[in-house]
Design a protein that fits this description.
about 280 residues; 14 helices; about 5% strand; globular
């Protein structure tokens, strides 16, 4: 689905003076973060913490289902207010978390979201269907502040950003995220997989891991931005450099000092990683 400039919905962008923009399509960035989330759960310590919160071991397909939830962390970026702000300096600076509210409070928008996400399938992934909303809210809280939507909130201003404009349809962009998730994590969509517990502790751990995965998945040394003529399909990005990130993460989990090795794998400052680790409640 193209935007006003004939390019895909964007997920990450960087201005480069007169040379224009480097950016990632929304689906590419979301897949980057989901792949990092999945790689983090190959670290024994993180897997143990997650399974402790769940109260039971997690099967591979269940972990991949949580990776799909991580992939959906930036669904809000499909709103046209957010998409339009990089092309018009006078445009309102619309975010991607608050504008999600009308998707829960407006019946027609809620139905469109349900169709784009194939929500009946996602409901079946959890012991209680209503747990899906808790896990989505956990994923959408990746900036560190818990997200909640009050039915009494006024959402009229945000509602308009979810209306197709003749060239772009936000819900088509969300449907493309669903398609990317199915292609990247086929085990998540298998039949006869035990449902995931809906316990709050597990949602909290997932929220912290998505925050860390988003931070690492935005690291341009491993997930570079691209100029529009070189844009590739989302899955093709993971046939190249991000595999090196996988190897670094796996090595970090096997060392005697995993926190130090993990820091070196990410090439991140000690204080920043410690802050994210505390917020993720992984200690």
């Amino acid at each position: 689905m193209a935007d006003a400039q004939g390019e895909p919905f964007w997920g990450k962008v960087e201005r480069q003076g007169a040379d224009g923009l480097r950016f990632l399509p929304l689906a590419s960035h979301c897949l980057d973060v989901a792949v990092v989330f999945r790689a983090l759960l190959e670290l024994p310590v993180l897997r143990r913490r997650l399974e402790s919160a769940a109260g039971r071991p997690l099967y591979r397909a269940q972990v991949e289902r949580l990776a799909v939830i991580a992939l959906l962390h930036d669904v809000g970026k499909a709103n046209l207010g957010f998409q339009g702000k990089i092309f018009d300096p006078k445009a309102p600076q619309i975010g991607h978390i608050g504008p999600l509210a009308p998707l829960f409070t407006e019946t027609i928008l809620n139905q469109k979201l349900a169709a784009a996400l194939n929500v009946d399938r996602l409901f079946s992934w959890f012991v209680l269907p209503e747990a899906l909303q808790g896990f989505l809210l956990a994923s959408w809280s990746h900036h560190g502040k818990p997200v909640r939507f009050d039915p009494d909130d006024r959402t009229g201003d945000s509602r308009r950003w979810w209306q197709p404009d003749g060239n772009r349809d936000p819900f088509q962009a969300i449907a493309e995220l669903t398609a990317a998730a199915r292609e990247a994590f086929p085990a998540a969509f298998a039949e006869n997989v035990p449902p995931i517990p809906g316990v709050t502790r597990l949602q909290h751990r997932v929220a912290g891991l998505v925050m860390l995965a988003d931070w690492a998945g935005s690291h341009q040394a491993f997930f570079p931005l691209e100029r529009p003529p070189r844009l590739r399909r989302p899955e093709s990005r993971h046939q190249r450099r991000p595999r090196r990130w996988h190897r670094r993460v796996r090595h970090a989990g096997r060392t005697r000092q995993p926190s130090r090795a993990f820091r070196e794998a990410l090439r991140l400052p000690t204080t920043s990683l410690a802050g994210h680790t505390r917020r993720a409640r992984l200690r």
